[in-house]
Amino acid sequence: MIEIQGHRGVLATRHGNTLASFVEALRLGADAIEVDVWLTSDGQLALRHDAVIRDADIRLGFLRDAVVEKHPATTTDVDVETRTPTLAETLALMRFANATAVVLDIEVKTEGTAWDEYGQAIVSALSKVLKAHQHEQALRVRSFDPQIVRAMAAMLPDVPVIALSRANTGQLPGLYPSAPDSLISTALATGASAIAPEFGILNAQLVTEAHLAGLKVYPWTLVTADEILEALELRVDGVCVNDIALAHETLAGQGMALPPARPISLPLLGSGAMA
C-alpha cells in the first residue's frame, strides 16, 4: 500500500499548518499528515512553515503573536485562524477525531547551520512532548538537518525518523546531501528509517539503492497526477502531496488501496437529553 501524506494538511485548498487544513486532510483520507514545527521564545511548539512572516521571527516572539501562514494557491479564505496552532493542540485534534492511527509526521525546521542552542532547545522540547504521546498517537519526525535526526533517533528510538533532502551542491553541517550514495549513507549513520527526497532528485537509482539499504522512500511534494504516477512507477513507499483528493483519484485509477475518510462530527445529543 502506498502511503498518502498530506503536505501541511491539504495545501491545495486550505492554508497550510492550520487546524482547518488538518481536519480537511482527515475528511478526505490520509495515512499521514506532515506538519512543520518551530520553537517560540515562550517555549511553545508552533506549527508553521516559515520562521519569518511580516518581518516577525516566530522563534523570537510569543505564540500569541504567531500568525498563520497563508498560502496564495489556496482557494478558501474563510475563518482564518487567529494564530498558528501548537503541536499539543494538533495532538488533541487527532485524539478527538479518533485518528491516532494516522501518522503525525513532524518536520523540525532549522536554518541548516551547525548545531546550536536553538537546535538543542527544540529537540529537548519536542522529545518531551512526543515521549508522552508515542504510545497513543502514530508519530514520525523528519528534518533536512542530520543533526536533528540523529538527536531525535537517540532520544526516542521508538519514533521513526526521516532524512529530508533537496538538491544542493555541497554538504552543509545542517543539510543532508542530495547525491544518492551520500544521502543513503548519511541517513543510515543518523538513524533514519526512510529518506524523503525532493521530487526533482528522485530517480530509479536512488529508490533501488535506498530499498537495498532497508530505507523507505517518501518523495515530496508531488503536485500533479503525472508526478504521482511517475513516483509510483519507481516503486516508492509513499507520496507527500498538496492535493489529497487528486492522490486518491490517481491511486484508485491504478487499483490501489486508499486510506479511509475520517470526517469529524460532534456527537448527537441522546434522545433523553434536554433541549
UniProtKB/TrEMBL annotation:
It holds the Pfam family GDPD. GO terms for molecular function: glycerophosphodiester phosphodiesterase activity. InterPro entries: GP_PDE_dom, PLC-like_Pdiesterase_TIM-brl. Residues 2-251 form the GP-PDE domain. The keyword Hydrolase applies. It is an enzyme of class 3 (hydrolase). Its EC number is 3.1.4.46. This is Glycerophosphoryl diester phosphodiesterase.
